[in-house]
Write a structure and sequence with these properties.
By secondary structure, this protein is mainly alpha-helical. The protein has helices at residues 2-16, 20-23, 26-54, 62-89, 93-100, 102-119, 126-133, 141-148, 150-181, 186-214, 216-227, 230-239, 243-269, 274-292, 296-308, 311-331. The mean pLDDT is 81.
């Protein structure tokens, strides 16, 4: 519950945060700090939701069980892209930049309230509840992870980097890139992200289902290999200045991202024993996000493009990130 409360508090503060004109340089500093706290809250809540769904199933069916919690980002992106598209269509650019961008943040608080109601009625995952009943719960699981499971932590965190960087390219950097370098509008880019995310939800379910037969590790590696050309395809499609081709490039990229992300939860959680699984998964998720995505990946992409004026530099950045995740998955234990 603490993680949901932290997410709601930071989201509300971002929505109310005064701009640079009123606070000066402290405004972007506060924004980065609040986004960092959001990431911590997300990591904690993600692990709880993951284990709650995954541990209701047997070891062989854990892949599909863990997939249900992985639907959140895809569905969230569909919803947020739709809301932002509606807001941008209802006002001019100046109004959106002045105050309109705050509206989606305020609306998201309604979802957090609904999540609070649902979360308050849920019990602990069965495997953890059994250990708790036997008095086998560690007093300091975070310390145990850092002292005894460093290798597992690095491997699990590395699997976050590639998918996060690819996702940042397709859903964040793409919005500014296509409007500033081409003839497409932000609305066209948002609709491409909307369609790609919706299709990604379907792919997530399919990949999760196959993971019960083939294993999360194999599915993740297949997705990683398929994702290697995704950035090159995206930039080729964006260079056409055609909305349909842009939609194809983003849909293709988000599809291969969904293959990796669908089984990422199972892959990460099974790197840790039950007594530290929640803490280990949370730390790995958060650290991997900080290293790969979050606020840093789009910033790195902008910096690379300004320095080189070459889309190739961004594509190679994505490829390197994916190779890091692929190497981590190959070293991961279990899950075939």
């Amino acid at each position: 519950m603490l993680t949901l409360a932290l997410m709601g508090l930071t989201t509300g503060l971002i929505a109310l945060l005064p701009g640079y004109a009123r606070l000066g340089a402290i405004s972007p500093v506060l924004l980065v700090l609040l986004r960092f706290l959001q990431g911590i809250a997300l990591g904690g809540e993600w692990a709880g939701a993951l284990l709650l769904t995954a541990e209701q199933n047997s070891e062989t069916a854990m892949g599909m069980g863990a997939t249900w919690s992985q639907l959140g980002p895809g569905l969230g992106t569909v919803l947020s892209a739709g809301v932002i598209w509606g807001v941008t269509r209802s006002m001019d650019v100046a109004s959106f930049q002045d105050w309109g961008w705050r509206l989606p943040l305020f609306l998201s608080l309604l979802l957090l309230a609904a999540g609070w109601v649902v979360r308050s009625s849920l019990s602990e995952p069965p495997q953890f509840a059994e250990r708790k009943a036997r008095g086998e719960v560690l007093a300091n699981p975070v310390g145990a992870v850092l002292r005894h499971h460093g290798r597992s932590l690095l491997i699990a965190a590395s699997t976050r980097i590639g998918p996060d960087v690819l996702y940042a390219l397709l859903t964040v950097f793409s919005l500014s890139y296509v409007t500033q370098t081409g003839e497409l509008t932000r609305s066209a880019a948002l609709m491409a992200v909307f369609a790609g995310s919706a299709w990604g939800v379907i792919v997530t379910l399919l990949a999760g289902r196959f993971s019960n037969c083939w294993g999360a590790k194999r599915i993740f590696l297949v997705g990683t290999v398929c994702a290697l050309p995704a950035a090159f395809v995206f930039f080729w499609c964006a260079a056409s200045h055609q909305a349909l081709l842009l939609g194809f490039g983003i849909c293709l990229g988000l599809s291969v991202h969904a293959i990796m992300y669908s089984v990422q939860g199972a892959l990460i959680s099974q790197q840790f024993p039950v007594e530290v699984r929640y803490s280990g998964s949370s730390i790995a998720y958060t650290c991997g996000s900080l290293a790969g995505g979050g606020a840093f990946a789009p910033l790195i992409m902008v910096t690379l493009f300004r320095a080189t004026h070459l889309e190739l530099s961004i594509s190679l950045y994505v490829v390197v990130a994916l190779l890091v995740s692929g190497a981590g998955a190959m070293l991961a234990r279990g899950t075939r």
